[in-house]
Amino acid sequence: MVFKAIKEDIDSGQFHFDWLIAGVSFLFWMRLLMMLRLTLTFGPLLSITQAMMQNMMAFFGIYIIQLISFSCVGMLLFAQVPVYRNLFSTFMMLFETSFGAFDLTIYDDLSLRKKYLGIAFQSFCIIANLLVLLNLVIAIMADAYSYLSEKKLGVYFTGVIELISTYENDNQYGVLVCPQAPFNMVTLPFLPFFAFSKNSKLLTKLNSFLCRLVYLPLILLLAIVFAVCNLLLIPFAYCKTVAHKVVLSFRNRSVSAIKDFIFYLLAGVPLLLISQFTDCYWFLNHAYNWE
After folding, report:
1. Rounded to 5, what percent of the chain is helix, strand, coil?
2. How does pLDDT run across 219-278, given as a tens digit for each residue?
3. Is the pLDDT of residue 196 over 60?
4. What is the rounded CA–CA span in Å between residue 139 and residue 291?
5. How many CB atoms lie within 10 A of CB 78?
6. Phi and psi (nearest 5°) for 52?
7. What is the pLDDT of residues 131-147, one digit of tens each?
């Protein structure tokens, strides 16, 4: 039923591809952020940020509780004000107030006593949130950062050790997470088999085959780059080898050394061109070698 509804939405043009693309894009950027944790430049800073989030979660718990308590008091005192009509709108108004976005004119339609009570209530919320809690979280973050920055390498290597098992290739399911878009679409028809099969040998063979298949375009591209670079370096390799053989001829002063020099002088370029096929073969061979 779900797939049928999705198909109907696609046919009618109501399916939000922009939402789907936005979600996939977000996951790819988060994946990049997770990979940056393994670098020595960004890893310590990201590890410190992750460690600081534990203190931040405790702070946000206190922050939300006090916002809810203020919201309940505000709803009971100022039920005539439209913004206090329910808990959600009151909570959002006080949340914006805690960051400095407040409007004291919402109490103008109340009686004089209620108006000043409302101004005093919202001013107290501003003081409690903007001046006290906001500066408290800054102090917590500064203290945690100063403490962890002295131990940043230890925090970083601890995070790297924890991630080793995450980034280790799985012999049965590694192809589901390793390839980049759009090559990962190759694995789509095989998802039911990966989901329901319990045969570890077949899963390992299928995973190995699909890994080679999805990386084939990348390997071919790298092989072309490798061959082009080799061809561009042939003149330099030829000149260097000729100069080396000249030195050997003068050093050894033997007939064999002179014959080698003359042979390479005439046949060096064809030999270098023929060797490109051997180099490309071994490049592709090692590219697909698990070891």
Report:
1. 85, 0, 15
2. 888 889 999 998 898 888 888 888 888 887 777 777 777 777 788 778 888 888 888 888
3. yes
4. 50
5. 22
6. -70, -25
7. 677 777 777 777 776 76
Token look-up 């192809």 returns 175
Q: Cα angle at 141 between 140 and 144, to 5 degrees?
A: 85
Q: Which helix (H) or strand (E) is 38 found in, with range? A: none
Torsional class of 253: left (φ above 0), alpha (ψ -120 to 50), beta (otherwise): left
Smallest CA-to-CA distance from 230 within 276, 278, 277 is with 276
The answer to whether the CB of 189 falls within 8 A of the CB of 171 is: no
Q: How many CA atoms lie within 13 A of 248 on its CB side?
A: 15
Give the position of tokens 């108004």: 93
Name the residue type at position 210: L
Instruction: State the DSSP code for 174.
Output: G
Cα 218–Cα 220–Cα 222 angle in degrees, nearest 5: 70
Report the length, in residues, of the chain.
Answer: 291
Residue 266 Cα to chain centre, angstroms: 54
| Cβ-Cβ contacts under 8 Å for 165 (sequence gap 6 or more) | none
Q: Which amino acid is at 136?
A: L
| CB atoms inside a 10 Å sphere around CB 80 | 13
DSSP characters for 261-274?
Answer: HHHHHHHHHHHHHH
Nearest alpha-carbon partner for 132 in 89, 178, 200, 70: 70
Residue 270, CA distances (Å) to 189, 231, 266, 274 in order = 47, 12, 9, 6
Q: Are 159 and 43 in contact (CB under 8 A)?
A: yes
In 24-103, DSSP assigns E strands to none
Please tell me whether the peptide bond between 182 and the residue prior to it is cis, using omega within 30 degrees of 0. Answer: yes
Helix (H, G, I), strand (E, B) or coil at 85: coil
pTM: 0.48
